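Here is the promised in-class demo. Please do not try to memorize the tokens; focus on the logic of going from shape to residues.
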């Protein structure tokens, strides 16, 4: 049986807390199927919104949430989606993606799975460089610049 795991943690300071909460009240967010909008906005006003979810089916439109979050912030918004295959008590990762958003533009890149195939061993910074190199020209400039800083081997592209 397939299990989908989601993780999103957003820490905010200063006026971003109130401004984002006010803006999100008028946005459509697929997350509101799991967290009421009033609770989401309250957590944002407090300075931290944390979301973890596990289900048999993927959350439809999960990435669309980050169009709205990132449109009102000056920071990169980051989330994760991992897929596990469960057989009884044993679970093994079959895929994992990092979702990044800046100024309303969202992209998703695969992560390299750990040899153990266990979720707790997944490195959220283990970007699949082969995939990134293969699709380099299709990525937006902000992503390319960030990857060049993070991975010096990509500076040749």
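The designed amino acids, position by position:
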């Amino acid at each position: 049986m397939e299990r989908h795991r989601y993780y999103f943690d957003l820490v905010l300071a200063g006026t971003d807390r109130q401004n984002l909460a006010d803006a999100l009240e008028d946005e459509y967010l697929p997350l509101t199927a799991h967290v009421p909008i009033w609770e989401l906005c309250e957590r944002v006003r407090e300075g931290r919104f944390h979301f973890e979810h596990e289900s048999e089916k993927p959350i439809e439109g999960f990435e669309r949430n980050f169009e709205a979050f990132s449109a009102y912030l000056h920071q990169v918004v980051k989330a994760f989606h991992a897929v596990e295959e469960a057989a009884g008590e044993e679970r093994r990762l079959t895929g994992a993606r990092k979702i990044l958003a800046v100024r309303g533009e969202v992209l998703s890149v695969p992560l390299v799975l750990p040899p153990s195939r266990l979720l707790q061993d997944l490195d959220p910074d283990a970007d699949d460089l082969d995939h990134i190199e293969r699709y380099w020209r299709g990525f937006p400039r902000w992503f390319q610049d960030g990857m060049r800083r993070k991975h010096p081997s990509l500076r040749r592209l």
